[in-house]
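Listing S7. Sequence submitted for prediction.
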Amino acid sequence: MSFPDITTDLSARLPELRGRLIANQPLAELTWFRVGGPAQILFTPADEADLAYFLARLPADIPVTVIGLGSNLIVRDGGVAGVVIRLGRGFSEIVVEDGHRLRAGTAVPDVKLARAAADAGIDGLAFYRGIPGGLGGALRMNAGAHGGETRDCLIEARAVDRGGAVHVLSNADFGFSYRHSGVPADLIFTSALYQGRPGDRAAILAKMDRVTQAREASQPIREKTGGSTFKNPPGHKAWQLVDAAGCRGLMRGAAQVSPMHCNFLINTGGASAADIEGLGEDVRRRVKELSGVELEWEIKRIGIPA
């Protein structure tokens, strides 16, 4: 499937744009599942000012979707209409500041922030070693692992709204809860400031190694997957509910519930986005029928079905 090419019209509206516009860019290669259709327009802004300029002049009737590293994402087979924004090099800097703080762009992978903190002797961010995504997504969903969450260490973040205005949000402004933040959906995070505490580099790196070993022993991290599929319902663990419903190893097409960790879906090779999302819905239905618990997707799903 392909969409009408609107790059010429957009370029005419945006003569000072420094970022890159690409029409009908395949998105499958940008996601860990390796599935999905194209973006009508993929925009990679040069920096925060370029992003704000773009959004301020983009026609209001053109939808905007933001993607990060694609680790927690299903792009549907029909692709994504409008503009898909993916932050790149201009949002990848990490700066160590006084008071055991780090300021980082939101295109930075979680694991890279954890390593930078460790190298600086800053403790409190090692949990990010266990999260396969970028900081933008971590802010949006209060990402956490191994006893830590984003809300535990965030001081503030910068963001641009759909009209191109820049905002600075404090931790309290996020309204964090389990795997959720309450900030408006149109805000695109550009950078964040984190607070750590004094630590020993060797001890922090050892902690990160333990996180890595635990992930490798229990999760299918070398497969085409999207990380944890469902949020843990109150009082339950999602994987236990999926397992009890007999879904371990369940397949739809080439999509499979991981036999290793059944809160992970994997593309065994040649699966479509419809296969993967449909398999997730099969699992949700079986769990609801058996336990009465309704699982909520943790993986984001965007775009148009084929």
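Caption to Listing S7: primary sequence and predicted structure tokens for the chain studied. The helical segments are 7-13, 48-57, 110-119, 135-141, 201-218, 238-244, 273-291. The CA atoms of residues 142 and 150 lie 5 Å apart.
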